[in-house]
Amino acid sequence: MLKNVHFKPSLLPFLLVFPQIVVTLVFFIWPATQALYQSVLVEDAFGLKTEFVWFKNFGELFQDSHYWASFEVTIVFSFLVAFLSMSFAFVLAILADRVIKGSGTYRTLLIWPYAVAPVTAGALWVFMFNPTLGVVAYALSAMGYEWNHQLNGGEAMALVVMASAWKQVAYNFLFFLAGLQSIPKSLIEAAAIDGAGPGRRILDIILPLISPTTFFLLVINVVYAFFETFGVIHAVTAGGPAGATNILVYKVFSDGFVGLDLGGSAAQSVILMAIVIGLTFVQFKYVEKRVAY
Amino acid sequence: MIENRPLLTFFSHVMLLLGVAVIALPVWIMFVAATHPDVRMTQVPLPILPGGYFFENLDIALNKGLSGQSGQGVARMLLNSLVMAMLIACGKIAISLLSAFAIVYFKFPFRMFFFWMIFITLMLPVEVRILPTYEVVANLGMLDSYWGLSIPLIASATATFMFRQVFLTIPDELLEAARIDGAGPMRFFWDILIPMSRTNIAALFVILFIFGWNQYLWPLLITSEPEMYTVVMGIKQMLEAAEQAPEWNVIMMTALLAMVPPVCVVIFMQTLFVKGLTETEK
């Protein structure tokens, strides 16, 4: 933690941490305590009167079927995003690890979507699937399938999942490739000498050895799907149709800023914070053991 | 190569190229749309090969924007995005370098307390505390300003942790030598620590630049004046306008302009980018 050799106590270290502590206090700690505080208050529509109500906001949330629906949507959404982007990235990483020549080129060709903003990704996909104009929607209708994500909840979900997963493939690919390349070649060679073909080696050697990376990526992808996909949802479906893509983060925003239900929105924020703390804890506990091989 | 299976290698290349094609498809469609006149954008099926209107569309997007809107071009939004991304990246690096230096190299009261206070910000992403943070920024009168856009996003536990990690690997002998030569703390910081963590700073800058450029929810909340809009927000506003007047050529040109700077950063600084990505996640 602290260096064995260090400087004597003085005023200087306080000045050095001062900027970060001020920003943290003003923009992190204070708003977070405000969220905690507001989550136990009910405010009237004009903001004139507030009433302390203990955990009534939470009670109302847990009785609200819309909130549970949003929870369910979030879980389905993050599972699909994580599964789709991780499996696609894993297959590509296995292939790129196999080909000796050009794996660097493939890496360059595959990692740039990481830099695309979620909203931009949403815009690209919404354009391709635009029911009247989109190229893919046109191709689908030529095959006899009428695509309209503005009316069909399942199609809306599929679209936001594709847009979010598309952006995340880059990240997963990078980490899977690094993980694959750190597996000792001697293990693979030994298996090959024992007569295991490429498929067998993936199942029995690569998958178990890469499981720390997989688990790490799973946590990261769930966090991504929970919080960073706000832009995709906002640009593509705005939570609709009929709440089919209304994930928790989007609901905090729409209830608070559009619906002006401050207490309810704050209670939702508090629940989200609890989820983040849980996920961060899992990630840290695991990261300690990460350098296993 | 474990065993020589030319057929399998060939198959791998084919599959990889297919993967690259799937990943690149949305961007190709976008690029094609940005090279056609607006009339063409209303005729089904849309083109899948580029046309000759690239520079006309570029001009419209940069200087005029969509015809139905205020006439605000994207040029100003690009500038705002650049300023915001630079302020966030430089600000984060500066305050985290200083606080990591204090925490690693000084013994002072409340050291661990400060450390945990910084640590806890890791658990509070902006999305979960938007309403109260918005109130704070509004009370400080920072709405519609570059400060309001960047400062609330500046505090970062990840950057502080990374620099802490880097400083811990720097041998103690360097500090001893510096002290024997009569260097004070700040002298040591500027002349030894900063040069020794140069590549880490660069790698972090790449990641933070992308992070800052792609901010969406925050600018959306705290800007109401068109002069302060960022380009990522601009796309969303154009999408809303697209319900009435589908000028997809201009929208897609804007999307292209919005993604070119960060994508170039990733491609041209790939080594630094990969380093930054793997180190900040630790």
List the helices and strands and how they pair.
The complex is a heterodimer of chains A (293) and B (282).
Chain A: H1 12-38, E1 41-43, E2 50-52, H2 56-63, H3 65-98, H4 103-111, H5 118-128, H6 135-142, H7 153-181, H8 185-193, H9 198-228, H10 230-236, H11 248-258, H12 262-288
Antiparallel strand pairs in A: 1-2
Chain B: H1 6-33, H2 54-64, H3 74-105, H4 111-120, H5 130-139, H6 146-150, H7 157-169, H8 172-180, H9 185-196, H10 198-213, H11 217-222, H12 231-241, H13 248-268, H14 270-280
Helix pairs in contact in B: 1-13, 2-13, 3-7, 3-10, 10-14, 12-13
Strand order of the largest sheet of chain A: 1-2
Would you list the SSEs of chain A in sequence order as H and E?
Answer: HEEHHHHHHHHHHH
CATH superfamily of chain A: MetI-like
Mean pLDDT of chain B: 83
Topology as H/E string of chain B? HHHHHHHHHHHHHH
> Taking Cα atoms only, what radius of gyration of chain A do you get, to the nearest Å?
24 Å
Name the beta content range of chain B.
Answer: under 5%
CATH class assignment of chain A: Mainly Alpha
Determine the N-to-C terminus distance of chain B.
Answer: 31 Å
Shape of chain B: globular
Instruction: Give the helix/strand class of chain B.
Output: mainly alpha
- The total count of strands of chain A amounts to 2
CATH topology of chain A: MetI-like fold
Strand content of chain A: under 5%
Count of helix runs of chain B: 14
Helix content of chain B: 55-70%
Which whole number gives the mean pLDDT of chain A?
Answer: 82
Explain what the structure shows.
- The complex is a heterodimer of chains A (293) and B (282).
- Chain A is mainly α.
- Chain A has one domain: MetI-like (MetI-like fold).
- Helices cover 72% and strands 2% of the residues of chain A.
- Chain A is built from twelve helices and two strands, in the order H-E-E-H-H-H-H-H-H-H-H-H-H-H.
- Chain A has a two-stranded antiparallel sheet with strand order 1-2.
- In chain A, a hairpin with a 6-residue loop joins strand 1 and strand 2.
- The longest helix of chain A is centred in the N-terminal third of the chain and has 34 residues.
- Chain A is globular and about 75 Å long.
- Chain A starts with 11 loop residues before the first helix and ends in a 5-residue tail after the last helix.
- In chain A, 43% of the residues are buried.
- With 282 residues, chain B is mostly helical.
- Chain B has a domain of 147 residues: MetI-like (MetI-like fold).
- In chain B, helix 3 crosses helix 10.
- At the A-B interface, helix 1, helix 3, helix 4, helix 5 and helix 7 of A face helix 1, helix 3, helix 4, helix 5 and helix 7 of B.
